[in-house]
């Protein structure tokens, strides 16, 4: 292994380790040069293993040593896009469960992210295919740190459900975590397993309120401390968009929020209120 390759691999491994520490993971590096496991993460009594693949440029990640298809094993691909000496540059990071490496996609012409040469003695993951998946399924793999986050100390305080997914806000210590699982409810496509951290509930909820039609979905839970805030936001949303009674899941929201919603007509416009 050349010195340049070694530096790229080390830079990639320590960058990923730093990110894992920042999200609160209990992680540590393994030792050795030729290895298929670079980082081990303890989570809820289980061990998750990570193989980090670093790339100086923007072509292919060699995976000749990959053979471990396991639900607890991940490959993390790190591309510095020829900017490794620019410490202001944040590398592209794609976190792929090993069991999904060979999945095929229509957007890739029925292929997986893996390319094997005609002789069959060289196997790589192509960065351009990862980027294509990112454009089609936003955050499916790129910067998707959710598998490594220990949520054992999290308290669910708000959740909206819809067909194929959910929008949730959890409280962990003095932080609020917004999580979005599975299908995106907006017109932008997919937004699979994403999360963001906020200092207040209101800031976390604002992301949901601005981007998603949460008022037309199903309210699963809301903490008592935030019910008044939510039903006031709901009334504003219903009136702003002039939602008809037929489009609003009224009984579900009434049950969870403990208020009664009613509509009237003023100058031929529907107006919602509560009591």
Describe this structure in words.
This protein is α+β, with helices and mostly antiparallel strands and 275 residues long. It is built from five helices and 17 strands.
Task: Provide key terms for this protein.
single chain; alpha+beta; five-stranded antiparallel sheet; 33% strand
SSE topology sketch:
Elements: H1 3-22, E1 26-29, E2 39-43, E3 46-55, E4 60-62, E5 73-79, E6 92-97, E7 114-116, E8 123-126, H2 127-136, E9 137-138, E10 155-162, E11 165-172, E12 175-182, E13 190-191, E14 194-198, H3 201-211, E15 218-222, H4 227-240, H5 250-257, E16 261-266, E17 269-274
Parallel strand pairs: 3-5, 9-13
Antiparallel strand pairs: 1-2, 2-3, 4-8, 5-6, 7-8, 10-11, 10-15, 11-12, 12-14, 16-17
| Total DSSP E strands | 17
Top-tier CATH class of the largest domain: Alpha Beta
**What is the residue-averaged pLDDT?**
87
Distance between the first and last residues' Cα: 71 Å
Put simply, the count of helices is: 5
Number of domains: 2
| Helix content estimate | 10-25%
Series of H and E elements: HEEEEEEEEHEEEEEEHEHHEE
Helix/strand class: alpha+beta
The side-by-side strand order for the widest beta sheet comes to 1-2-3-5-6
**What percent strand?**
25-35%
At CATH level 2, the architecture of the largest domain is 3-Layer(aba) Sandwich
């Amino acid at each position: 292994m050349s010195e340049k390759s070694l530096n790229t691999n080390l830079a990639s491994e320590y960058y990923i380790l730093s990110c894992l520490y920042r999200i609160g993971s209990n992680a540590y590096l393994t030792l050795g040069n030729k290895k298929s496991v670079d980082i081990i993460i303890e989570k809820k009594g289980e061990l998750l293993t990570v193989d980090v693949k670093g790339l100086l440029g923007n072509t292919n990640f060699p995976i000749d040593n990959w053979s471990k298809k396991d639900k607890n094993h991940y490959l993390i691909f790190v591309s510095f896009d020829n900017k490794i000496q620019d410490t202001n540059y944040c590398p592209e990071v794609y976190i792929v469960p090993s069991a999904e490496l060979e999945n095929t996609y229509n957007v890739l012409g029925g292929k997986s992210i893996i390319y094997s040469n005609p002789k069959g003695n060289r196997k790589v993951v192509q960065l351009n295919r990862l980027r294509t998946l990112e454009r089609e399924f936003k955050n499916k793999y790129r910067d998707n740190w959710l598998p490594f986050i220990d949520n054992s100390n999290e308290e669910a305080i708000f959740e909206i459900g819809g067909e194929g997914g959910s929008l949730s806000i959890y409280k962990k210590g003095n932080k609020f975590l917004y999580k979005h699982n599975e299908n995106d409810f907006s017109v932008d496509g997919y937004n699979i397993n994403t999360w963001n951290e906020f200092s207040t509930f209101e800031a976390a909820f604002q992301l949901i309120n601005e981007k998603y039609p949460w008022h037309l979905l199903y309210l699963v839970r809301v903490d008592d401390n935030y019910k008044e805030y939510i039903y006031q936001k709901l009334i504003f949303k219903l009136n702003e968009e002039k939602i008809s009674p037929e489009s609003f899941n009224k009984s579900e929201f009434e049950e969870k929020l403990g208020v009664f919603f009613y509509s009237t007509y003023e100058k031929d416009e529907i107006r919602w209120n509560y009591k």
